[in-house]
Amino acid sequence: MIAGVFCVLILLFEKYSFKEREAFSLQNQINKSVDVLKQLIIRDGLGQTEQALDLTASVHAGQFRKNKKGKAIPAVIHPVTVALHAAALSFSEDELLAAALLHDALEDSTLHELPGSFSLGVREAVDTLTYRGRGKADTSAMLAYYHAVAQNRGTALIKALDRCHNLATMSEGFTASQQKTYIKETEHYVLPMMAGAEKHFEDLKRPFWLVRYQMASVMRTAADDLTGDVLTEMNH
């Protein structure tokens, strides 16, 4: 079952990456994704995940993903996708899925911390995943952030899946120069974080192989397309 879900998610992932999702309703995609999560919640009794799903819907209500064509893509699709990819890779622990759903909650809202009704594990994971220096090019802060992320199996997986999904969709919201910067950041920080984490957590090796393959494919395609775009930006 998990393998089948994973194949379906990868197909959706690829379609989303290459702007072929016009054939189906985006809202229907979100609804179906949420339904899959709800089925997992009911089947496995995932109380933290259920609470996280409600909070992420509230936190991201009215927020949209960056899009150069003006399409209104609800921001909630991102954390839901990250959580589903974790589950599809057989990482379906309650705290991990809850943290995946809430990994952007503190950065994208006025919340400073999660409610005390969440377990300590969820609260610590989300705190670790929250980058406090957003918008600042601080190498030491970035290194410290990714070092902390690599120390925990769940946060390392969530960050890898987060970056993978953002890479796959970056062409829709980033300028060419922003995409190049994002790729460099991935190479300098995210890939080394993954390499470090899998040395300590054996069960991350297989999913990280799959994530690296997807990242490499996206970055190669982007690199081929970006050179001319960056020159065009510089001339305007």
Describe the structure.
The chain is 69% helix and 0% strand. The protein is mainly α and 236 residues long. The protein has two domains: 84 residues, no CATH class; 98 residues, no CATH class. Helix 7 runs parallel beside helix 9 and helix 8 packs parallel to helix 10. The longest helix is centred in the last third of the chain and has 30 residues.
In a few lines, what is going on in this structure?
With 236 residues, this protein is mainly α. The protein has 10 helices and no strands. It folds into 2 domains: 19-102, no CATH class; 131-228, no CATH class.
Distance between the termini: 51 Å
Number of helices: 10
User: How many strand units?
Assistant: 0
Given as residue ranges, the uncertain stretches (5+ residues, pLDDT < 50) are: 17-23, 230-236
Q: Which structural class do you get from the secondary structure elements?
A: mainly alpha
User: Which percent range describes the beta-strand content?
Assistant: under 5%
Percentage of helical residues?
55-70%
The description of the largest β-sheet is: none
GO molecular function, one term: guanosine-3',5'-bis(diphosphate) 3'-diphosphatase activity
Protein name: HD domain protein
InterPro entries: MESH1 (IPR052194)
Organism: Pseudoramibacter alactolyticus ATCC 23263
